[in-house]
Design brief:
The complex is a heterodimer of chains A (224) and B (321). Chain A is mainly alpha-helical. In chain A, 24% of the residues lie in helices and 5% in strands. Classes of the chains: A mainly alpha (224), B alpha+beta (321). Bound molecules: iron/sulfur cluster (2 copies).
């Protein structure tokens, strides 16, 4: 009688142990062969991104000893065929009235500061190829930062010092910077959200290749 | 390389048999025996070595990078260039550009701007020839709740949203903090990692024994181990290399961010600085009063990560607004 219950008990233990073993081998293993969710993303998965950042012409070399640093800037980001504005506006009578634009520029949605804002707060009524500061003086589109800086003084100062915005090139020499309008649409300046690149894969789904004999013989450096 | 070790192992056994027989005969004295044993052992080793991979002997006899004479460094660079050029089928340059005088590199990251887009992560993989699979990322972007502030316990590096930034979150990229007082270099039993005069903490991949003490010592999780053979597609290889930086690694060594040593020692900005779409990343010389870094240290709220550990990072986080 006693020995029978002992055998039953042993059998139960064995069954539990076996179950645990099976679970550990199947579910518990870290890397599952053919796991579809596991994709180790790499730069080549994003062909639209320019990984080898091209420098502006003239920036390919560092500054020489004693040579002054240059700051270059790409031309302002006009929509295609829109500049010079005078091409179209020359033959038109300037119309300063506030209205919904219908003949051209309908795509522009003004979402920048107070509702009262209007084209001629920044654009110049008479000479359309220029921008106009509050003081009344005209500035080139290439110097639009002066216009932006009228309201955004602290950011303008940070930008001038290289703290706001992007710089490329040489930390100790020639570099390029961008105009405010390169990153912020002046009519709708809030930075648009982006799709983030893929997250790293979790350590549990990493998989490792053993160094093959061929690779080992080729890589003479190290302790593979 | 396992076959090499396997081949060598039986060598010492042979003399034991010889000794036994010799003693029985009484015809072989100790000196002769030792000479014979030595010869047998040596020939065994010689056979193994002759059959070993080319370059194996050199790799075993190599000295520490800092002990190499300028000529030896050049020779080493040439060998590496040859090796990589033939392995990847394209022309590779490996430089040992030295540090500049009066330069101490520093880095700053604007937490009020970073949107967590991970462009920097992959630009770094591309620039520094990180293994694609197994995947190694030197930069890890942490997502944290604005409500909680910097709370590393709750930080999520695996976030995957349709768009970033998420309203209630902020993002904190973390890589090597290039400490002035680095715990990682101190624990290395073979001095395979050290701080250069321009402040960059580097690793000699030829000298690293893969013990991973430095990984345990680093409070920022900045160091990564090559558990497997690193895979880099030839098409994605960055051929502009530095011997202490982005040259391809092998299984069994540790690697980490070097501020793009191959770029910054030639004056260029690091790759992550140039790729960041919001311009959150700033780089320069801490000893130059007019540098971007010194300006932001004067004008902005600046902090370092885990300041209480006295690692004294040269990587600063700041808020521009
Ligand atoms: S690229 Fe810039 S914005 Fe994007 S995660 Fe890196 S630091 Fe943040
Ligand atoms: S962050 Fe880590 S790897 Fe970098 S210097 Fe500090 S302790 Fe070393």
């Amino acid at each position: 009688m006693e020995s029978t219950s002992l055998v039953v008990l042993l059998l139960v233990f064995a069954a539990i142990g076996f179950g645990v073993l099976v679970y550990a081998v199947t579910k518990g293993s870290h890397y599952k062969q053919g796991e579809t969710l596991r994709v180790a993303h790499a730069p080549k998965d994003y062909p639209e991104i320019e990984w080898n950042v091209e420098l502006l012409p003239g920036l390919e070399k560092p500054a020489k000893e004693g040579e002054a640093e240059t700051f270059s800037v790409p031309s302002p980001p006009f929509s295609e065929d829109v500049f010079p504005c005078s091409d179209c506006h020359e033959d038109m009578d300037p119309n300063p009235e506030r209205r919904v634009l219908e003949m051209a520029h309908e795509e522009i949605v003004l979402d920048h500061g107070p509702k009262s804002r209007w084209c001629f707060d920044c654009h110049n009524l008479e000479d359309r190829d220029k921008l106009r500061l509050v003081s009344g003086s005209l500035v080139d589109f290439k110097e639009s930062y002066k216009l932006c800086g009228q309201c955004h003084g602290t950011i303008y100062r940070d930008w001038r010092e290289g703290i706001h915005g992007r710089r490329r090139g040489y930390w100790n020499g020639h570099k390029s910077y961008l105009l405010c309008a390169h990153c912020h649409n002046p009519h709708k300046p809030r930075f648009k959200p982006l799709k983030p690149l893929a997250p790293p894969i979790r350590p549990s789904s990493q998989h490792f290749t053993e160094p093959s004999a061929e690779q080992t013989s080729k890589s003479e450096g190290g302790h593979s | 390389m396992s076959q090499d070790y396997a081949g060598k192992a039986p060598a010492p056994r042979v003399p034991c048999d010889v000794a036994h027989k010799g003693a029985a005969d009484g015809g072989l004295n100790r000196r002769e025996f030792l000479a014979g044993a030595g010869l047998t052992a040596m020939s065994a080793i010689a056979t193994t070595v002759a059959g070993a991979a080319p370059g194996f002997i050199e790799s075993m006899l190599r000295r520490h990078f800092k002990e190499l004479s300028p000529d030896e460094v050049q020779e080493r660079l040439r060998l590496l260039e040859e090796e990589y050029s033939s392995r990847f089928g394209k022309k590779v340059t490996v430089a040992a550009t030295p540090p500049m005088e009066n330069v101490l590199f520093g880095y700053a990251l604007d937490l009020s701007r970073c949107i967590g887009c991970r462009r920097c992560v992959y630009a770094c993989v591309h620039e520094n020839n990180q293994s694609r699979d197994p995947q190694i990322h030197w930069i890890r972007v942490l997502e944290m709740a604005k409500e909680r502030g910097i709370d590393l316990e709750e930080a999520d590096p695996y976030y995957d949203h349709d768009t970033v930034p998420q309203e209630d979150s902020f993002y904190m990229p973390v890589a090597c903090q290039q400490c002035r007082n680095p715990p990682c270099t101190r624990v290395c039993p073979v001095q395979a990692t050290w701080q250069e005069p321009d402040g960059i903490v580097v690793i000699d991949y030829d000298w690293c024994i893969g013990c991973r003490y430095c990984m345990a010592a680093c409070p920022y999780g900045a160091r990564h181990f090559n558990w497997g053979n690193p895979q880099i597609p030839a098409a994605g290889l960055n051929t502009d290399m530095h011997v202490l930086g982005n040259r391809p690694r092998v299984a069994g060594v540790v690697e980490k961010c070097t501020f793009c040593i191959q770029r910054v020692r030639k004056g260029r900005y690091p790759a992550c600085v140039e790729i960041c779409p919001v311009g959150a990343r700033k780089f320069g010389n801490l000893l130059d009063e007019n540098s971007e870094l010194r300006y932001l240290m004067r004008e902005k709220r600046v902090f370092v990560l885990k300041e209480d550990l006295n690692t004294q990072p040269k990587f600063y986080y700041f808020y521009a607004t």
